[in-house]
Design brief:
This protein is mainly α. Helices cover 75% and strands 1% of the residues.
Length: 325
């Protein structure tokens, strides 16, 4: 049994007062989430922040109407019941995860929030046999549909096509600066800089396990070095390149992956089988880097291929010659 699951109540077991209390707490939580989204994007995307602020205000209005309905039917004491107390009730993404969401992901999350709430109330209304409860749940579903229409109105008011396109371009540029650029630099460094030590060791010893250890050490060491270097040399405040922690992680992880790609084949005990597979992996890595440069950095493909593939081939040749000598 999943811990905590047995302590949750089924929605069908809730009284009308508890359903109303659940709706009130849900509206309150959603208002907080919208305000968190607005705060997250306000500096870079003020128009989208205005949309989320407006949606939070809409949640406040609906919550107040629900409270007034509760006072009229059940009095001033509202039972404490929240989403996590009800089995099968739709969940919301933890607010702290907002730091990791892109602008487009936040917009999609907001749309999903309203659809989830409306769909849940509609399903719940269809499942009940009590006329009063059915009416209450139908009203809540209509309120959620009203939220969606209000959101559309707010988007039209604050986000015209030009503004949205400008914000989308800004979000894409930030993604490139924070994740793609340092990640690509790390992948290039890890793939190319480890070629010489790995293949020099391979041809010098023809010992696959020793080659694997050297490759792992070179890859992990390069990843740590690149990650710390990327995070330390630019705090992102003036350059606008984003969180140094995110850039450091992107650079460090991709550096390690770039090196480990052609180190892992040496877990195969047969030397020439491992070396052949490692060469194929190197070929794929270098062309993948050229493709990423072309797609995200808008580098002409031929130029990217010449830079990366030719450079990698030279480093590989140097390592092989040194190891053979």
């Amino acid at each position: 049994m999943i811990p905590g699951l047995s302590s949750r109540r089924r929605f069908s077991d809730l009284s009308e007062q508890e359903v109303l209390a659940l709706a009130i707490s849900s509206e309150e939580d959603d208002g907080r989430i919208y305000r968190s989204y607005a705060q997250r994007v306000r500096a870079d995307y003020p128009a989208s922040a205005a949309v989320f602020d407006g949606m939070a205000q809409e949640e406040d209005v609906h919550r107040q109407r629900l409270i007034e309905l509760h006072q009229a039917r059940f009095g001033d004491v509202i039972p404490l019941i929240r989403r996590e107390h009800v089995a099968g009730f739709y969940a919301r993404r933890p607010v702290w995860l907002v730091e990791n969401l892109s602008l487009e992901a936040i917009r999609s999350e907001v749309e999903a929030m309203e659809h989830q709430a409306e769909a849940f109330y509609l399903r719940a209304a269809q499942a009940t046999q009590d006329a009063d409860t059915r009416k209450l749940l139908g009203d809540l579903a209509a309120a959620e549909a009203g939220h969606q229409r209000a959101a559309d109105d707010l988007v039209e008011k604050h986000l015209d096509d030009d503004t949205r396109s400008e914000e989308d371009r800004g979000a894409h540029r930030q993604f490139i600066l924070t994740w793609v650029q340092p990640g690509l630099a790390g992948l290039m460094d890890g793939s190319v800089s480890t070629l010489a030590p790995i293949f020099a060791t391979a041809f010098a010893t023809q010992d696959t396990w020793t080659t694997f250890l050297v490759g792992t050490a070179a890859s992990v060491g390069a990843g740590i070095s690149m990650g710390f270097t990327e995070a330390a040399h630019d705090d992102g405040v003036l350059s606008g390149r984003g969180s140094p922690l995110k850039r450091g992680i992107a650079s460090g992880v991709m550096t390690t992956i770039g090196g480990m790609g052609h180190a892992l084949p040496y877990l195969i005990p047969h030397f020439w089988t491992a070396t052949t597979i490692a060469m194929i992996v190197v070929f794929v890595e270098l062309w993948a880097i050229a493709w990423i440069q072309n797609k995200f950095m808008e580098t002409p493909f031929i130029r990217a291929a010449l830079q990366v593939v030719l450079g990698g081939a030279l480093v590989f040749t140097a390592g092989a010659l040194i190891g053979s000598g």
